[in-house]
Write a structure and sequence with these properties.
It is globular, with a radius of gyration of 23 Å. The longest helix has 16 residues. The protein is of the alpha/beta class.
Length: about 325
C-alpha cells in the first residue's frame, strides 16, 4: 500500500542575506490533515522559513516541496491551493463582510460557499456590517474567512490570536479545530505556547536559524525535559524542590518525615510545553546546547534549593548562533 506523501517536505533549508545565515539546515515535514506549530523567539527565522514555503521568498539552498511543488516554481494554480492568514490584515474596511468574501471567492476555481464560510467563522450577525466597524476579534475571523474561502489544502496561520481576549482566543481555537476536522493541513506560528499545545499535534522549535527540537507536542524536548517537579516549603521556610519520575514516592516520604502532615505549599508540577520551550531556548542561547539539565533554571530562581535531580538529559543539538539579525534583513 502506497503511503500518502507529506503536504510539506523541507530538507536542509538554507537562507542567507549576504554573510548573515537566517536559516541554517532546517528540515521537517507535515502530513496531510496535520496541524504543525513552528515556534521560536523573534529573529529565529520562523517567518523567513514560512515565506519560503509560501513562495514569497527564494531559498539559498536545500529542498522544499509544498503540495508536491517547489514553491519557487509554483504558479497560479498552486497558489490557489493555499490559504494564508497573515499577522496583520489588509482587508478593505469600507465594504461589508459578505462583499469582501464574495470578491475574494472570485479569485479561486472552486471556492467555498460564502454563506457557509460566514457561518463557520461565526460572522453571521456581522455579515452585512462594514469591516471597519468590527472589533479586533471579529476582524481576525474575517482574516480566517478570507484564508479558507478558496478551499485551501494547506492553511498558513501567522500569530492568529495576537491581541485577542481570552474568550475570543478560545472561540478562535474552536474554529481552527473545525477546519482541522475537515482535513485541512495547518502550519501555525504563535508566541502563545498554550495555543500551540491546544491546536497542534506536533511542533518544531527554531533558534538562531536552526531547528533545535521537533516532535509530538507531549514529547518535544525528550523525556528528561518533562520530569515532574515536587516543590514544598521546609520547616525553616525555605522553598525546596526535587525533579523526579516518582513524585508520589517523594510526597509520601515528605509526609512520613513530617509525621503524616502535608508539607507547606506542597505542589507537584508537570512541565508544560511552555516550560519545555523556555528551557530549550534558554539552554541553547546561553550554554550552546540544548539542556543537559533543567536544574540550572531552578537554581536561577531566588530562594529555591534543588534537592535531587533524577532527570538529567544529555542531548547535544549543536552550537548556538550568536549573531543577531536586523529586522531590516529578515522578518522573524
Amino acid at each position: 500500500m502506497t503511503s500518502t506523501p507529506p503536504v510539506v517536505q523541507v530538507r536542509d533549508l538554507q537562507k542567507s542575506y549576504g554573510n548573515v545565515e537566517a536559516v541554517r539546515g532546517v528540515s521537517f515535514s507535515i502530513a496531510a490533515g496535520e496541524t504543525f506549530a513552528l515556534l521560536g523567539p523573534n529573529g529565529a527565522g520562523k517567518s523567513t522559513t514560512i515565506e519560503i514555503l509560501e513562495g514569497y521568498r527564494d531559498r539559498t539552498g536545500g529542498e522544499v516541496s509544498v503540495l508536491g511543488v517547489d514553491p519557487q516554481r509554483g504558479g497560479r494554480d498552486w497558489k490557489a491551493r493555499l490559504g494564508i492568514v497573515l499577522q496583520t490584515s489588509g482587508e478593505n474596511g469600507n465594504v461589508t463582510v459578505t462583499e469582501q468574501l464574495r470578491h475574494f471567492a472570485g479569485f479561486y476555481p472552486n471556492p467555498r460557499d460564502v454563506d457557509e464560510v460566514i457561518d463557520a467563522t461565526g460572522l453571521r450577525e456581522k455579515a452585512t456590517s462594514r469591516i471597519s466597524k468590527l472589533s479586533g476579534g471579529q476582524r481576525r475571523r474575517v482574516d480566517v474567512a478570507l484564508g479558507v474561502i478558496g478551499r485551501p489544502e494547506l492553511l498558513f496561520l501567522d500569530e492568529p490570536t495576537t491581541g485577542f481576549d481570552p474568550e475570543a482566543r478560545h472561540q478562535f481555537w474552536d474554529l481552527i479545530r473545525g477546519l482541522k476536522a475537515e482535513g485541512t493541513t495547518i502550519l501555525l506560528t504563535t508566541h502563545y505556547l498554550d495555543e500551540a499545545a491546544q491546536l497542534a499535534g506536533r511542533a518544531g522549535i527554531i533558534v538562531g536559524g536552526q531547528l533545535i527540537s521537533s516532535g509530538l507536542i507531549n514529547e518535544i524536548g525528550g523525556a528528561d525535559a518533562r520530569v515532574p517537579v515536587v516543590r514544598w516549603r521546609d520547616v525553616n521556610g525555605l522553598v525546596r524542590e526535587e525533579r523526579t519520575n516518582q513524585p508520589a514516592r517523594v510526597v509520601a516520604e515528605l509526609a512520613q518525615s513530617a509525621n503524616g502532615a502535608e508539607p507547606e505549599d506542597l505542589e507537584v508540577i508537570r512541565p508544560s510545553l511552555e516550560d519545555v520551550y523556555l528551557s530549550l531556548v534558554h539552554s541553547y542561547e546561553v550554554a550552546g546546547q540544548v539542556p543537559a539539565d533543567s536544574r540550572e533554571a531552578a537554581e536561577g530562581r531566588p530562594g529555591v534549593t534543588v534537592v535531587r535531580d533524577e532527570g538529567a538529559a544529555s542531548a547535544d543539538l549543536g552550537q548556538p548562533d550568536t549573531s543577531r539579525l536586523s529586522e531590516t534583513d529578515v522578518r522573524a
